């Protein structure tokens, strides 16, 4: 029986579940089982050996997306993310030793992109603005090799409590958890003076999540539009707030939404209001891009990337910031 779900990506969307809910078209889709190896506790090679001894058949590193179409008991190493193993859909790991010991994290591939792309070095100071239940926080800590300072904020006490358990199990030690509204965190507070990296994964509609369960009542388009508008306004406030940290160099913005209002439009508005930042062109080999003109960003979907629906943008500070006028949408996209 499946006993704990809360820390896994199936439950991590933080979506404000309401009418918009998950994407209807995604119902019935079976995604691969993605397993992130927690390099704070083990290595990818050791995890592969363990699974082989456990009766799984290792097919090596995937070369194409088609290689992720796996049959029961076989697995591969992912073609884009080196610490990710891929198994057949519905492969059950909740009772597995490696899961219980925190050596593996059950995390959708798209949701591994934000920490991977932010890539903060060891000893850096990092903020995870909307952090619970903490899969991306533990991924950041692994990339930082547990060295540096990782400030993690969330408003939801229950999700934070799940997060504490998850981080303990994952061996994360460089974090500082705060039950706090990120919008009220003071960027000029001396304790954040060395923060150069922010991961911003705010609450969203969750419209990219597959299998969240559906809303029985038909959506009311006007209500939906209002709700998306409110979410987008909150997301833009978070983005503007995060870009105000004085030494910030790089920021990843991500959502598990498929709506342009919560993705490209938020990022475009953030860039227009913060001319000192520009987009970084992400992973040229990734098969799905942000909607034009923001093709530097990544999108993910069940059909094109075999993941939940997702969006990621990476913003970096640029040096000629002060002397430049705010960019137009087209400039921001170049
Ligand atoms: N990054 C998380 C992960 O990978 O496990 C998932 C984050 S979830 C998409 C969004 C989170 O933002 C929710 O846990 C929600 O409680 C939190 N949140 C919403 N408003 C917030 C605010 N003003 N300040 C801090 N956290 C907030």
Automatic annotation (TrEMBL):
**Originating organism:** Gadus morhua
The catalytic residues are 256
Q: Which InterPro entries match?
A: MeTrfase_RsmB-F_NOP2_cat, MeTrfase_RsmB-F_NOP2_dom, NSUN5_7_fdxn-like, RCMT, SAM-dependent_MTases_sf
PROSITE patterns in the cross-refs: SAM_MT_RSMB_NOP
Pfam families for the chain: Methyltr_RsmB-F, NSUN5_fdxn-like
What GO terms fall under cellular component here? nucleolus
- Listed GO MF terms: RNA binding; RNA methyltransferase activity
Q: What is this protein called?
A: SAM-dependent MTase RsmB/NOP-type domain-containing protein
Q: Does the keyword Plastid apply?
A: no
Q: Which residues bind S-adenosyl-L-methionine?
A: 130-136, 154, 181, 201
Region: Disordered, residue numbers: 1-23
The SAM-dependent MTase RsmB/NOP-type domain covers which part of the protein?
Answer: 23-318
């Amino acid at each position: 029986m499946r006993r704990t779900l809360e820390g896994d990506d199936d439950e991590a969307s933080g979506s404000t579940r309401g009418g918009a809910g998950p994407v209807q078209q995604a119902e019935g889709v079976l995604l691969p089982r993605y397993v992130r190896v927690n390099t704070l506790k083990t290595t990818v090679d050791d995890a592969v050996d363990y699974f082989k001894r456990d009766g799984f058949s290792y097919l090596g590193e995937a070369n194409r997306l088609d290689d992720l179409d796996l049959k029961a008991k076989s697995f591969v190493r992912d073609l884009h993310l080196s610490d990710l193993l891929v198994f057949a859909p519905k492969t059950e790991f909740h009772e597995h030793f490696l899961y219980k010991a925190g050596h593996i994290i059950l995390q959708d591939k798209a949701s591994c992109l934000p920490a991977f792309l932010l890539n903060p070095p060891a000893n850096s100071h990092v903020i995870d603005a909307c952090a619970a239940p903490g899969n991306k926080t533990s991924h950041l800590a692994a990339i930082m090799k547990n060295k540096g300072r990782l400030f993690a904020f969330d408003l939801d006490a229950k999700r934070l409590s799940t997060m504490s358990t998850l981080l303990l199990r994952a061996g994360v030690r460089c974090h500082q958890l705060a039950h706090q509204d990120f919008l009220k965190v003071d960027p000029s507070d001396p304790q954040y003076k060395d923060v150069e990296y922010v991961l911003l994964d705010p609450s969203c509609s969750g419209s990219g999540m597959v299998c969240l369960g559906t809303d029985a009542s038909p959506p009311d388009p006007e209500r939906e539009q209002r709700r998306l508008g409110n979410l987008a306004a909150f997301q833009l406030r978070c983005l503007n707030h995060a870009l105000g940290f004085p030494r910030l160099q790089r920021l990843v913005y991500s959502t598990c939404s498929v709506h342009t209002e919560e993705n490209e439009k938020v990022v475009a508005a953030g860039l227009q209001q913060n001319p000192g930042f520009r987009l970084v062109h992400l992973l040229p080999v990734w098969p799905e891009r942000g909607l034009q003109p923001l093709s530097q960003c990544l999108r993910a979907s069940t059909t094109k990337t075999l993941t939940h629906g997702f969006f990621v943008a990476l913003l970096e500070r640029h040096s000629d910031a002060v002397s430049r006028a705010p960019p137009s949408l087209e400039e921001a996209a170049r």
